[in-house]
Amino acid sequence: MTDRVQEYDYPASVALSIADEDPLAYDAAARFLNAGPFDVVSLQHEFGIFGGPDGSHILRLVEHLRAPLVTTLHTILAAPSIMQRNVIDRIGRASSRVVVMAAKGARLLAGNYNVDPRKIDVIPHGIPDVKIVPSERMKERLGFAGRTVILTFGLLSPNKGIEVMIDAMPMILRSCPDALYIVLGATHPNLLRDNGEPYRDSLAARAKALGVADSILFINQFVERAELLDFIAMCDVYVTPYLSEMQLTSGTLAYSFGLGRPIVSTPYWHAAELLADGRGVLVPFGDYEATGRAVSGLLADPNRRNVISRRSYQEGRAMTWQRTAELYLDLFFDAVGRKVRATESRADLRLSAA
């Protein structure tokens, strides 16, 4: 996809791009896929990716495909507008299989939309398969030796609830004076384009007013995956203080869970499911006192942190990219089964991702 404000230097493996607001570009993409040697099309759907009202331009592509379509829905709304429901219903009809990344998503999709429940599969958000390393070793490598590190990562925007953690820091510092809260990630490009940096500036001003500015580090940049994994590996507690429950998937949550980090989170849909039964600590939305108590409690109890760490790391092995890839490949084969010879090797299956 190429959005309306900038183009991208795609690698040679990208054979075609779609200008998001150009309806004819979706028609051309459908013709390209139909003419090519593709057995299955994998669609990663998020409303904001595609042009037209509620991303409806993508319907021009999916409803004209000849190859089977396997769609992964990254967002499923509990109370969609008429247009949003129509888009998802039509994508569902056009798809051989529909993938969601949490059981909550499957329930929402089956109950609130006209998508055949028999088409729905749950495949968790994938994570890298890496070994746990001692956080102190990674702190030394990254220059944070001697600090107790709390981390939040992701594109910065007001729905992330960073102000709640800032408000919790005075309580945390009373019991853990060497605590450092790192907010890692660039401002969301859409927010930056439309409004600039007032939200980030307001967070810095809030920290200064509370007297905790020296214990909060804002790293305003995008980091590559290897560097992100290093930051996650060094943190003592990972926090996702999001303000709304209506978030079905969080890649940062999945990564931190899979790397065995103790997590404090508000109970948005993905977190409520992933961290249930003691796999993490859930706190009410917008409650800085509960957040401060939860983080302080974990920092003061290394044995509890170790128990949570070992459990989340072990359970995360079912979410590795290797495992999710196998599950997707099973779906792709199921979608094209009637077209693929029984003796054909999986390695020979040609995949197209739109």
Summarize it:
This protein is 42% helix and 13% strand. By secondary structure, the protein is of the alpha/beta class.
Overall structural class, as computed from helix and strand content, comes to alpha/beta
What is the mean pLDDT?
A: 91
Strand content: 5-15%
Globally, the shape reads globular
Description:
The protein is an alpha/beta fold and 354 residues long. Helices cover 42% and strands 13% of the residues. It has 14 helices and eleven strands. The strands form two sheets. Strands 7-6-5-8-9-10 form a six-stranded parallel β-sheet, sandwiched between helices. Strands 4-3-2-1-11 form a five-stranded parallel β-sheet. Strand 2 (69-73), helix 3 (82-94) and strand 3 form a beta-alpha-beta unit. The chain is globular, with a radius of gyration of 22 Å. The N and C termini lie close together (9 Å).
Keywords:
354 residues; alpha/beta; 6-stranded parallel β-sheet; 5-stranded parallel β-sheet; 14 helices; 42% helix; globular
How are the SSEs placed, and which strands pair?
Elements: H1 23-35, E1 40-45, H2 58-62, E2 69-73, H3 82-94, E3 97-100, H4 103-112, E4 120-122, H5 135-142, E5 148-153, H6 162-175, E6 179-184, H7 189-195, H8 198-209, E7 216-219, H9 225-234, E8 237-240, H10 251-258, E9 263-265, H11 269-274, E10 281-282, H12 288-299, H13 302-316, H14 321-336, E11 351-353
Parallel strand pairs: 1-2, 1-11, 2-3, 3-4, 5-6, 5-8, 6-7, 8-9, 9-10
Helix pairs in contact: 5-9, 6-12
